[in-house]
Amino acid sequence: MSLLGEFALWIAFLIGIWGAAAGFTGGRTGRADLQRSSRNAVFALAITLLIAMFAVEWLLFARDFNVEYVAAETSRNLPTFYTWSALYAGQKGSLLFWATVLSIFGSLAMLLTAPRHRIYLPYVAGVVCVVAVFFITVMLGAANPFARLPFTPPDGNGMNPQLQNPGMVFHPPMLYLGYISITIPFAFAVAALLSKRLDVDWLVAIRKWTILSWLFLSIGICLGMWWAYVELGWGGYWAWDPVENASFLPWLVMTAFLHSVMIQEKRGMLKKWNLGLILAAWVLSIFGTFITRSGVIQSVHSFTQSPVGSYFSVFLFVSIVLLTILYVTRLPLLQTEAYLESLVSREASFLFNNLMLVGIAVTVLTLTIFPILSELFTGNKIQMKPPAFNVVNVPLGLALLALTGIGPLIAWRRASIPNLKRQFAVPVAAGVAGALIVLVLGMRQVAPIVTIGLACFVMGTVVQEFARGVRARHRQYGEMYPLAFFRLIARNRRRYGGYVVHTGMVMLFVAFTGMAFKIETEASLKPGESVSLRSPYGWTYTFKHLGVSQYDALNRQVTAGTVVVSRDGKTIGTMVPEKRQHVDSFGRPTFQPSTAVAIRSDLREDLYVVLGGVVGGTETAVYRFTINPLVWWVWYGGIVVAFGGVIVMWPGGTVGSNRVASGYTAKLAAANAVGAGE
Amino acid sequence: MREPVAVSRRSFMAMSAGLVLLQTPARPPVAPPPGADSLADGGAAGQLADPDRAGRPLDPVTARDNDAAIQAIEKRLQCTCGCGLDVYTCRTTDFSCTYSPGYHRQVLALAASGMTGDEIVAEFVKEHGESILMAPPRRGFALVGYYGPWTLVGLAAVGLVLLLRAWARRAAGVAVVESPASPVPTPAELELVRRELQHFES
């Protein structure tokens, strides 16, 4: 099976080279046979890479420990659920996963692109093949998932315990899908540049793809936060780790693009900017992959240092140079069709929104690579850790939150003063009221008060937008309010789905303020002893340690502490944090002991208990007890963001919009006739 | 008049047997053998069957370990085990780390010797260099990290305002050139637009 897999990789490599050559030549010369061939090459690439991926899965499930990758990532007693995810748990498998999914997305682009946009497809096929060939080259040259060992170990090393979590089965693929799907809009952008067809057509062709990759990135980032929270045991969900930042960077740039592209579609402006954003998003996605795999920056997520990093740095450098040349030579073709008419307009507010998003991206990038920059200029590595990231990013984040509320309130082209007064009255009142309420309730930290105030302001904007839309439909079409609400969203999914996303973002920002009120304590407790913690809501939680038990599970030896929790004297449940020693099928320890956190959640706060270990081999256990307010709102916020994204990209909205537009035109004509009669 | 409750012979025998059993004196409490589990309130903790499974043996937590001032100092120091966490979070999360407990003991010892938080942090910097800090001091090249992004965003904002003003002026110029050619709306058209706008904005 490893031979079949390796053979498939080589075939895919050759097909990729042919596909790239045929695509670019076919696009340039217009030869239909080459264009067809490039399209078929993408399909063939997908099939061969799927065969290679199937071969890796086969070897993983067969526990063929003679294959280096299988021995490194699995063991005989690894549960089936995680055997599947072993495909992308390690460097080599994840590269194959990357290339395979890219070829599948490429094939979907070939199949689903509307006929009027097919002019771009040969170039798109060429770009997809080039990127896929790069990944296959890395595999064949430095990270072959089919490489064999000179001996066969009796059992494998097993999967890192921290990866044995349901979150890790879904989080990496989601992020990969986000990273990889950016290649499709990028490929269309390159196609538009190469073919010199830089009107709005290519933007229409990539609309769904951009939302799709943004959606995958959003879900992947949220799942990563959830995994970090439930698995790593440090009590938080975001640590500004370089690899977390690497996923955040393309997300920020894609978010900026999703806003600014509306200006190009409506007004024919910002062509250079939008093209630049798509190219930057792709470069950042490759940069993220480079950071994860090169070991150039210290990160808890990084794969082990390997020659893969040098492949990525060369690819990144060559890509940036070629893209810059292509972009600069096409600048004369990217002239604006209109000019902004007023500083107080929706366009201007979107531009400031873009400024903040790109500003945060530049900030995160600068601070992430700060060790490299500082070493380059001063000879000393200066690490920027979470406190420094928070100091710099919190004001920028709050400014962005404010713009989230401001943008929808300002009219396109030009807003008048009376219009601004009418639009801003309710949201500003909501914001001030929100800030005053938390102030009266005893909150004294500035950042959380400002966040709550801004969150209320944005929600005021969203609610006002929905209320006005629903009222207008009710008045115009006589629809009942609930029906008007659903039709309002259905007829303008992009706008109102966007507001749902804004609501999710508000929930996330409010949830982040909870971390300012985190309470924790450490205690060593004998059986029967307890410790109390006072929650920010005023309740007193008592944690009573009952004892420690030890037992064997499938691939681990468990030491579990049992804690009974009561709130204001009333028992509310039992929590069982664990210490796990993973072992292979011979009972030999495979990794350092790890912790499995016990979490008890409700909408207000999480109780988070970590078993650190025991004192002197007795049942006296060392625990860390933490009360984390509002954490569930992070997960709910993520769900709402994803839901809003699904609304935005849900197919079929155009027909409705057309119907509305034609209805509006008919009404206008009728009114015109009446007006003329008068 | 209440009817007498009928009790069968079998029930009567069962109840009698129960009463006899209840009268049986309880066995005297037996001390748990050494090494056995114990759940007695606050009593001595029993030995675990395999303490090695529970990771590195830990010391009991003292009030000093939970001292907010000590925690605040430790949150300014980075653990050097490669986890990227501060010393407090590392020692209360990664219980296999061999670095953070040592740093914790060092912080406690320095605090006991009468040093302030800043002095303790300075002592760590002297020993390990500035890389031990979670947030580098705001001087030298680190200023680029702290203020560079804000400066950049600020300059970009100023540049954007200037650009937008230039665009707005250019758009106004275009409008002035175009205005003579544009048709003058009739009162009926103006009324129609007014009504439609009212509809749209309501």
List keywords for this structure.
heterodimer; A: 678 residues; alpha+beta; six-stranded antiparallel sheet; four-stranded antiparallel sheet; 21 helices; 64% helix; B: 202 residues; mainly alpha; 7 helices; elongated; disordered N terminus
Percentage of β-strand residues of chain A: 5-15%
Number of strands of chain B: 0
Number of strands of chain A: 10
Give me the secondary-structure category of chain B.
Answer: mainly alpha
Low-confidence stretches of chain B: 1-5, 20-43, 176-181
Query: What oligomerization state is this entry in?
Result: heterodimer
SSE string of chain B, helices as H and strands as E:
HHHHHHH
Which two chains touch over the largest interface? A-B, 87 and 79 residues
The biggest beta sheet of chain B reads: none
- Mean pLDDT score of chain B, rounded? 76
Tally of helical runs of chain A: 21
Low-confidence stretches of chain A: 654-678
The rounded Rg of chain B comes to 40 Å
In brief:
The complex is a heterodimer of chains A (678) and B (202). Helices cover 64% and strands 11% of the residues of chain A.
Can you describe what's shown?
The complex is a heterodimer of chains A (678) and B (202). Chain A is built from 21 helices and 10 strands. Chain A has 678 residues and is of the alpha+beta class. In chain A, the strands form 2 sheets. In chain A, strands 2, 3, 4, 5, 6 and 7 form a 6-stranded antiparallel sheet that branches. Chain A has a 4-stranded antiparallel sheet with strand order 1-10-9-8, with no helix packed on it. The longest helix of chain A is centred in the N-terminal third of the chain and has 32 residues, at 201-232. The N and C termini of chain A lie far apart (83 Å). Mean pLDDT of chain A is 88; it is low at 654-678. Chain B is 51% helix and 0% strand. Chain B is elongated, with a radius of gyration of 40 Å. The interface between A and B is large, with 87 and 79 residues.
